Amino acid sequence: MATANVARKAVTKEFVFAWEGKDRNGKQVRGEMRAAGDALVNATLRKQGILVSKIKKQTFKRGGKISEKDVTLFTRQLATMMRAGVPLLQAFDIVGRGHSNASVAKLLSDIRTDIETGSSLNQAFRKYPLYFDPLFCNLISAGEQAGILDSLLDRLATYKEKIIAIKGKIKSALFYPAAVLAVGFIVTAVIMIFVIPAFKSIFTSFGADLPAPTLIVMNISDIFVGYWWIIFPAIFGSIYFLMQLWRRSPTVQQFMDRTLLKAPVFGDLVRKSSIARWTRTLATMFAAGVPLVEALDSVGGASGNFVYFEATKKIQSDVSTGVSLTNAMQNTNVFPNMVLQMVSIGEESGSLDSMLGKVADFYEGEVDDAVDALSSLMEPLIMVVLGTLVGGLVVAMYLPIFKLGQVV
After folding, report:
1. How far apart are CA 305 and CA 315, in angstroms?
2. Which of 25, 233, 356, 405 has the maximum number of C-beta atoms within 10 A of its C-beta?
3. CB-CB neighbours of 344 under 10 Å
């Protein structure tokens, strides 16, 4: 036992060394090897008949942030290689070396080291909850236990690709109006700070009473000119503070999630997206053989909305007492009739995972249509808002000139 513990500790301290040398035929060769030190690398290679000329310890450069897309790409690559019969440790080596993000390469190297020490794949993933959520780890565990890890990895990669696609569509629908409104605010601020004061100096020389709209715009301009150094940091600071509060405070998350579902334009889109993610996650978990009550642990958080998270907890509690999934979902009053009917048919026919998958496909298509419709609707609305704003400023500044022309 003591010897095994010592060996395990030694493995955890191994490093990656790049080496160059010549084989028995005098041919130049190079490669990489994991070892506790360069002396061990040299000795191992000499036993293989390689005359080493250079050994260098590999260091991982500081890379960028590991995104969900990085994890999804790794999952797809690992699934492909395991289906092709590539050994697990070798697959980690191949993916790690070929990745452009050094942070991902370092993460995969650490996971590979954990697997070498005897940890299972899902145990190695669970050490990094920031990148691998419980749903990911539970599916990997189910695949290892059933001996269908390659199939589960493929299913998991497909699931994550679909979820990323939905998130991307939601973000694209929200990004366009937000970007245009931000540009509109900046243009308005530039006009208020630099253009309006020039008109003000001209109008002051007229010595006549100015129209009310012109006076209002000039007073707003005075505020911008005098307090721009407070206005800009306050606005951008407030947006940043609200986003951080939304991300970190459960109370704010609950309020914002409930408000988004009731929003007149975006509420329907958010609801369809949440249902699509909820059904897709449950279909993936159930198809992998995860028990329903256990699968519901991961489903609530994957929906991305607190209302559906709360509803999932209630569903889990009802199902654990013997209530059917259809009735438990119906009691929450957050799922449309079509979803309830499809789930009911799935329970009766014994094809719940297939029916949930069809519901997810339907609502993912609905999200696509909603994003297209929203984009078509937002473009003219934004043009009207910006036209009214900029046009109002122009008219307010030219009213005194029109009035002066009438007097002349």
Report:
1. 15
2. 356
3. 18
* 3 state SS of 35: strand
Query: Would you say 45 and 19 are in contact if contact means Cβ atoms under 8 Å apart?
Result: yes
**What is the distance in angstroms between the CA of the first residue and the CA of the last residue of the chain?**
105
Assess whether pLDDT exceeds 50 at residue 156: yes
Structure tokens at 217: 């715009």
Q: Which of 3-12, 93-102, 191-200, 347-356 has the lowest mean pLDDT?
A: 3-12
- pLDDT confidence band for 14 (50 / 70 / 90): low
| Res. 13 pLDDT band, cuts 50 70 90 | low
Neighbours of 70 (CB within 10 A): 19
- CB proximity list for 318: less than 8 A, separation 6 or greater: 327, 328, 331
DSSP string, 287-344: HTT--HHHHHHHHHHHT--HHHHHHHHHHHHHHHTT--HHHHHHHHT-S-HHHHHHHH
- What is the Cα–Cα distance from 264 to 238, expressed in whole angstroms? 24
- What's the token pair of residue 174? 């929200």
Q: pLDDT tens for residues 214-227?
A: 888 888 888 988 88
